[in-house]
Design goal:
By secondary structure, the protein is α+β, with helices and mostly antiparallel strands. Helices cover 37% and strands 14% of the residues. The protein has 11 helices and 10 strands. It has helices at 3-12, 67-70, 76-81, 102-111, 166-169, 182-186, 188-191, 202-217, 223-238, 246-258, 263-277; strands at 18-22, 26-27, 84-87, 94-99, 116-119, 124-129, 135-139, 142-145, 151-152, 162-163. Strands 4, 5, 6, 7, 8 and 10 form a 6-stranded mixed β-sheet that branches. It has a 4-stranded antiparallel β-sheet with strand order 2-1-3-9. Helix 8 packs antiparallel against helix 9. It starts with a helix and ends with a helix.
């Protein structure tokens, strides 16, 4: 049994959803049976755990606590080639503020409440009790990892874990260039489009958005192109009947930012897709 699997099983026994990461801190890509979400993925991609596939597919959403899954034959190849173990902070009920450099750490010490701290290769992880949306680059050298994200397991760290405060939650909403603001301006043209609605049921739209989120989340390369193509596909299907809302757009922007896209890149991709489709 590898050291990473041993660590994963220990964490899982404490209710922490875990998954293997390959070199480069990347999750294992979808297996052939799940390519292009052929397996159907996880409903809504909102909770940790395996998809319909028994392998560790679908990135953060594959994180599991069941030792039979983690120690299964299907997961064995991933653990043999794993570079480290990771966990889903949101599934564990915590939020990680990832500080990538000394400047970010200095800012946190002045701006955020002291909490449990884990040393990383380049900086520190600050852990808070509670969950919130995840976002990358909320300020220079600072990422937030909680819901729909994963973080490397680097040990338990030092100090007591304190509860989330408004200062931490504000990181993903108070800055002007965030994914939450961009859809407010970009969604306006959609409301004027009132063509025939192709949605057989509300589930049709929800499933389409969930599949689009998964397509972005599963991208292991060419992320810019994947985000643009996904936005284009969503808008071509749902952008003309008025059913696509700001909430749906925020979900897509959040998934893109979790893959490292900046708010500006998200906005540009959304705008370009609208222009291409004449919306």
């Amino acid at each position: 049994m590898s050291e990473h699997l041993r660590a994963a099983l220990s964490l899982a026994a404490q209710g922490v959803p875990v998954l293997p990461l390959r070199a480069g801190k990347l999750p294992f890509g979808n297996c052939p049976a799940c390519t292009k979400n052929a397996c159907g993925g996880r409903p809504n991609m909102k909770t940790p755990g395996p998809c319909l596939c028994p392998r560790p597919c679908h990135g953060w959403a594959a994180a599991a606590t069941d030792p039979h899954i983690l120690n299964s034959v299907a997961w064995a190849p991933a653990w043999r080639h794993a570079a480290t173990a990771a966990y889903h902070p949101g599934g564990a009920g915590v939020t990680v503020v990832d500080l990538d450099d000394p400047a970010a750490i200095a800012w946190a010490r002045e701006s955020l409440p002291a909490t449990r701290t884990v040393t990383t290769t380049r900086g520190e992880h600050w852990l808070y009790r509670g969950t919130m949306p995840s976002a990358n680059a909320v300020r220079p050298g600072v990422d937030v990892k909680s819901l729909m994200a994963y973080a490397r397991w680097l040990g338990r760290g030092e100090g007591a874990t304190v509860a989330l405060t408004d200062a931490v939650r504000a990181l993903v909403v108070k800055e002007p260039p965030t994914a939450r603001r961009a859809p407010q301006t970009l969604s306006a043209p959609l409301s004027a489009q009132r063509g025939a609605c192709p949605h057989r049921t509300p589930t049709y739209l929800d499933r389409g958005i969930a599949m689009a989120e998964q397509r972005i989340t599963a991208a292991s390369s060419a992320v810019h192109a994947t985000v643009y193509r996904t936005f284009l596909a969503v808008l071509s299907t749902h952008g003309r009947c008025g059913c696509l809302t700001e909430t749906h757009a925020v979900r897509l922007f959040t998934a893109a930012q979790a893959k490292g896209e900046t708010p500006r890149h998200c906005t540009d991709a959304w705008t370009n897709a609208l222009t291409t489709l004449g919306l």
